[in-house]
Amino acid sequence: MRETALLLIVVINILRADNSRDCQALTFGHGSVVCECNATYCDSIGRVGLPDLGQFLSFVSSKAGGRLLKSQGQLQKNSSGTALRIILNPNQKYQRIKGFGGAMTDAAAMDILSLSPGTQDQLLKQYFSPDGIEYSFVRVPMASCDFSTRLYTYADTPGDYELVNFRLSEEDIHMKIPLLQRAQSLSARPLSLFASAWSAPAWLKTNGALTGKGSLKGKPGGKEHKTWAQYYIRFLEEYGKYNLSFWGLTSGNEPTAGQMTNYSFQALGFTAETQRDWIALDLGPALHSSAFASIRLMILDDQRLLLPHWAKVVLSDVHAARYVHGIGVHWYFDRIAPPDITLATTHHLYPEYFLFATEACSGWNPVDRGVRLGSWDRAEDYAHDIIQDLNNYVTGWTDWNLALDLGGGPNWVKNFVDSPIIVDQSKDVFYKQPTFYSMAHFSKFLWEGSQRVGVSISQSTVLELSAYIRHDGSAVLIILNRSEEDMQFEVWDQTLGFLASTAPSHSIITLLWNRQ
């Protein structure tokens, strides 16, 4: 009887320690499943502790329907004889990770708030809590973007060069800010917020409109450019009144968009040269002389195919470069922009400036537009791009909208796309897409400060992988298998032994083991 009671206590403690929950899977005909969540139930990876020395943990998500399925194994002293060997080289050290996250757009905030309070909390927990996937970054648009329901800035009074009438919007005060505060309360560590502006007020622009081809009136150093720089300071000050501080800023979303004729939504055009001069003469000095001198300023915030040219123009100028900390990149044309000649080349030219992926989403391409519930292809696209970026010195990766509705909006210009979480207001539920789990395989395990390390492979393979050592000495290996075949492999950690495993067809795996 006593033994039975002790066994029961052990089982209860195990259950308490493992907060994971199973996916409530639904199929919508797009290749795999989504996981449905409501106010009272959602699958969860739970809190992940380190396995004992000599043990490893494996987390697998797959097209077949598995979502972060957890198993445990034993490292062996001898090789399993598997032909494919992955050798960990911890002495080869590369960049350190900053983190992962998504964007709190107007649309995302509206969709989250369309749910009942309990379901809202469940959704935010999935992203930000220790039981969720622990996002550490949130991108915040400054005023409206296409994922808004109207066009506005914070200073729409013509001629207000002193920004006397600068005001945050209702979308900020009643939607984004409360949700950001709730997300912060759920997170085990301070969230890193970074802001991006889509357009200056129309009266500051050459075309007199928030949309289309237009840039700032005048020249860098002039009153329009200085007012636009002060607009950034005022934004940071106003958010600070709500106890929200920012880790970083970008110099403006997709500056090349504002150089395009008849561009359909909010944009502000800069060339690399005019961005350089605006930073050197206006934005940089304004930040430096403000209470926000330590904020990280990222240039570009546009497609990586613009590198290394854009970085050369801006960072070769000492007056601009002194105010810059990093380079933001978007993913939309990555298939025609090889990472070695864009990202890696830029890193080697300017190693003191970090690279950071600031925006990505599926469903943006006109031939495959909008939401695809359960698309595993899109999950693989995410994992492939993240691994490719990280293996070429990028320090973090930011998804676009944290949530969208079933139509991929709202979006005032009907630029509907996909999101890792899709909200169905009519049922008071949300669906966690396969892309949510792609993000999880990185965001949950690659803590801030994790350092990418070398790996070598015994033979050619279709597997894509990236390896890291965390600050507690543990190792993380992330593997993507986009092939139709299950792939057996072993990992050789030369200090501990061999870890044998299998990458199922169309799967993402995260392996975690203690090294000390």
UniProtKB/TrEMBL annotation:
Listed InterPro entries: GH, GH30_C, Glyco_hydro_30, Glyco_hydro_30_TIM-barrel
This enzyme's EC code(s): 3.2.1.45
Keyword presence, Metal-binding: no
Pathway info: Lipid metabolism; Sphingolipid metabolism; Steroid metabolism; cholesterol metabolism
Major subcellular location class: membrane
Domain Glycosyl hydrolase family 30 TIM-barrel: 97-446
GO terms assigned for molecular function: galactosylceramidase activity; glucosylceramidase activity; glucosyltransferase activity; signaling receptor binding; steryl-beta-glucosidase activity
Residues in the signal sequence: 1-17
Cell compartment(s), UniProt: Lysosome membrane
Protein keywords: Glycosidase, Hydrolase, Lipid metabolism, Signal, Sphingolipid metabolism
CC annotations in GO: lysosomal membrane
A Gene Ontology BP annotation from the UniProt entry: regulation of protein catabolic process
Enzyme class: hydrolase
UniProt similarity note: Belongs to the glycosyl hydrolase 30 family.
Protein name: Glucosylceramidase
Record organism: Triplophysa tibetana
